[in-house]
Amino acid sequence: MTLSKRIAGWIFGNLWLKVLSLGLAMLLWMVVSGEETVERGLRVPLELTQVPADLEVLGDVPATVDVRVRGASGTLSRVGNGDVVAVLDLHTALSGRRLFPLTPDQVRVPFGVEIVQVLPSAVTMAFEPSASREVPIVPAVDGRPAPGFVVGPLSAEPRVVEVIGPESAVKRATEVLTEPVSVAGARAPVKQSVILGLLDPSLRLKTARSAMVTVQILQAPLERMLRNQPVHLRNLGPNLQAEAVPSAVDLTVRGNRDALGRIAADDLTAFVDLAGLGPGQYSLTVHADSSRDAGVTHVTPETVQVRISSGK
After folding, report:
1. pTM
2. Architecture of domain 222-310
3. How far is residue 294's CA from residue 267's CA, in Å, rounded to a whole number?
4. Domain 37-120 belongs to what architecture?
5. Dihedral sign, Cα of residue 53, residue 59, residue 63, residue 69
6. What pLDDT, in 10s, does the model give residues 189-222?
7. From CA 244, how far away is CA 306, in angstroms rounded?
């Protein structure tokens, strides 16, 4: 095959495909060139890259910057969230206060979009050496135990966790807090897995995110006896009469000194429950309502004889 025939074959081979491609290219050029060029202001995310591992960023860093973009109206109308991102390379950062310029070249944009302006044109940031150390966990408690009980020693497992952050903030850190453990109405030790947290937002936990907290619930340290408390007859049926022997009991109350000092004789009620009982003789357990701050630990005697008879 001669050279001329080879050239002719290259030119005229698949001719209809080449003509179609040329036509589509011309059509696309006409559509694009016919669109109006416009400008638009956008607020875009600021992405920090290559932060040195031994440095911590201090204070608040702008999360977004304002950019002005130019392009065909159709192209800009298709720009969505995340298509335009300002990227700040911090690999040259050193400890102290630094100024980093922001130029159009540092903004990623889709094809056909041009960056006209970036505001602010520079970002000021402060850096400090990174540090870490172990800090004790201090459990928090919410609510009150049952009357007559008090919150005892608190413990956490693990006892300490490692915190990381700017050197100055790490030095100031004295404790890691927990979400509160509820002890409302508790009469026995409470054990609960809780989330850990730090008050200083510049600090973070290296590994542990939770801890197992145990709260000891102890009987209050002091007791007081209230003598000759009348036994009330509750839920006596209609047309019935009842009598308790003995008609009064002694109540032993446990609480702290302040709580016991505030209790009056009519703050506590001794009672027997007669619900569903008809005429007859019964040996019934005496119960007692506790106050908010002190609990009844003993009733003497524990039972009374109750005689129920039909009413007149």
Report:
1. 0.59
2. Beta Complex (2.170)
3. 10
4. Beta Complex (2.170)
5. negative
6. 999 999 999 989 899 998 888 999 999 998 888 8
7. 4
